[in-house]
Amino acid sequence: MDDILVEVVSRLPDHDGKQFSIATTERNTVAGLIRKVCKEHGIPMKTSYTLRDKRERVLQWSQTLLNLGIRHGDVVYLNSEEEDLVHHNPCSWNSWWFVAAVSLLIGGVGITAITIMFTRNGETPYQYGVVLDAGSSHTQLFVYRWEGGKLENTAQARQIFDKPVQGSGLTSYENNISALAGPLSDCLQEAKGHVPYTAHKTTPIFLGATAGMRMLNEVDSSKSNAILNQVRLTFEVNSTFFFPNDTAQARIISGQEEGTFGWVTANYVSGKLGAGLASNELSDPLYEELTVGALDMGGASTQITFYTPDHAQIPQSYREDLDLYGRNYTVYTHSYLCYGINEAIRQYQAILVKTEGYNTTNITNPCGPDGYTIVLSHADIFEAPCANKFSQLDLLPQPGEAVADNYTLVGKWNETECSNTVRKLFNFDANCTYPPCTFNGTYQPKVHGEFYAFSSFYYEMDFLNLTRKSDSPTLTEFEDKLSSVCALLWDEVKVLPTGNPSSLGWYCFEGHYIHTLLIDAYKFNNKTWNNIHFVKKINNTDVGWTLGYMINSSNTIQPLGPQTFISTTAFSSLTALFCIFILLSVAFGCYARRYQEQRARGFYEPVPAYGAV
């Protein structure tokens, strides 16, 4: 073959742009041409050098110029492999890198997953419960959570969410029952967000209706049943929670239940029940002595519950027996229907009207601040169940007696008259069947131990600014503060801070009502008064009956034991398997690197990106 002249343009860093005319034969290889260029022009030979044609195709070292179509006068370009990889193909990707990455991903994710599962072996999953307190003035929803293992078959629950249901109490829907579904469904929707979706079907939901519904049920059971049926239907359609026994899980609870479950809550959140007790207290044979009493006051009823050393003497209708955390508790409890704060005000108003005459339109209100007036209809006062059907007092006018349509109650503060009128709410002279008695012939043993007073008890003390420094203001502090506030004019009272502005005109009545109830009715004295703690929350948990209800109900809920997510044998086997994947990823990576380097030197057929011939 004839010699040919090939023009070689250098792209090497030290000779960039230089052009060399190289005489060679057509049968010379690419490698031979590169060595000839380096030798003739004093360029150090490197195996990383390559030649490219004018179309930037890499020319394999082993191929001859004739086979590659290089003819006389053609131009080729001398490159360095390192420069070529950096500047011309930075990715340098091949399929082996992909295989290595997949192997590493499988191994890494697999080991992470089984490690998490193995470390969770022995965990006890959480259980949840939802309780709605359907009070006389509003309904409040609570979500509770506890470890599924429980303690002596009783849940150690804690509150994780609460929200009021929009609107008033259930009884306000008696003439438009279907309207209840909307606000109840909205509140349930929020509750579902605080319970894991996987736990919805095992999370029980309860609704307990209290004094307002108790009264409606006595007056018109068809209406109360219709309201409860609407609640049950809403739970079934919209809650997704566990609701197999509708009549037991949405019902009217008794006054004794309300008082007893409030007692359970007060003792649980204050550490007097369950795991809150120290080991020496758990073994104390007088463990019931460690408990605290509970004083609750809602809108329509008030409850008192406490342990007494004479519990064996308590008549059956005044006692409750509980089995909690492996212990038995016997407490005295009683609920006074119509002696909640709202119904006490209504009966007080009826007494004022009766005293001045049913047909008198302007009625003096000795418990109201001077300048405070309120207009009430005859129906507002006397058609409510607590003013007629359930009242222990003779409040109603005689048939045919003239009555006014409306009454204007005019505030004219008089401490003596206020106290005397409030005392008329209580029949202290009633016949006592089981002595000792409090009012209305009700049996009550001597108050014993510490007490937590919550709901309206707390709100009154908070309004009087007696809960800031201590939850146990003295009786003297209470009486002095009450007298000073009640002496204010209405213009001064109506600007006082309160969470319930509509009650501002009645705080003096409420204070004297609470004073009479605690001192004259429940028979606290100067000494035992100091045992009362006025609280809204204990350890960031609302004090009320719902938590106690949930704790007591948990005794019937199947406990969950520790779970095994993956066995030790499976964990060991899978760990070995995923480690093999990681080792394979290293091997594939090394092979991919070697393949890349050899391909650049021409030992393999180039991929199309190099355009090799």
Mean pLDDT: 88
How many helical elements?
A: 18
CATH C-level class of the largest domain: Alpha Beta
Largest sheet: 6 strands, mixed
| Helical fraction | 25-40%
Number of strands: 21
CATH architecture assignment of the largest domain: 2-Layer Sandwich
Distance between the termini: 22 Å
- Sheet/helix structural class: alpha/beta
CATH names the topology of the largest domain as Nucleotidyltransferase, domain 5
* Major sheet strand order: 13-14-12-11-18-19
> Considering the protein shown, what is the CATH homologous superfamily of the largest domain?
Exopolyphosphatase. Domain 2
The number of domains: 4
Strand content: 15-25%
In a nutshell, what does this entry contain?
The protein has about 625 residues and is an alpha/beta fold. Helix content is about 35%, strand content about 20%.
Structural features, described:
- Residues 83-91 and 602-613 have low confidence and may be disordered.
- The protein has helices at 30-41, 81-88, 95-119, 181-192, 211-219, 221-238, 246-249, 255-269, 279-282, 341-356, 378-382, 415-423, 456-463, 475-486, 490-493, 507-521, 545-553, 568-600, and strands at 3-10, 19-25, 49-52, 58-59, 75-80, 126-134, 139-147, 158-165, 205-209, 250-252, 293-297, 301-306, 319-324, 327-337, 362-365, 373-377, 406-411, 451-455, 532-534, 537-538, 541-542.
- 36% of the residues lie in helices and 19% in strands.
- The longest helix has 33 residues, at 568-600.
- The chain has 613 residues and is of the alpha/beta class.
- The strands form five sheets. The chain has a six-stranded mixed sheet with strand order 13-14-12-11-18-19. Strands 2-1-5-3-4 form a five-stranded mixed sheet. Strands 8-7-6-9-10 form a five-stranded mixed sheet, with helices on both faces.
- A hairpin with an 8-residue loop joins strand 1 and strand 2 (19-25).
- The two termini are 22 Å apart.
- The chain folds into four domains: 3-88, Phosphatidylinositol 3-kinase Catalytic Subunit, Chain A, domain 1 (Ubiquitin-like (UB roll)); 95-121 and 566-592; 124-253, 2-Layer Sandwich (Nucleotidyltransferase, domain 5); 255-558, Exopolyphosphatase. Domain 2 (Nucleotidyltransferase, domain 5).
- It is built from 18 helices and 21 strands.
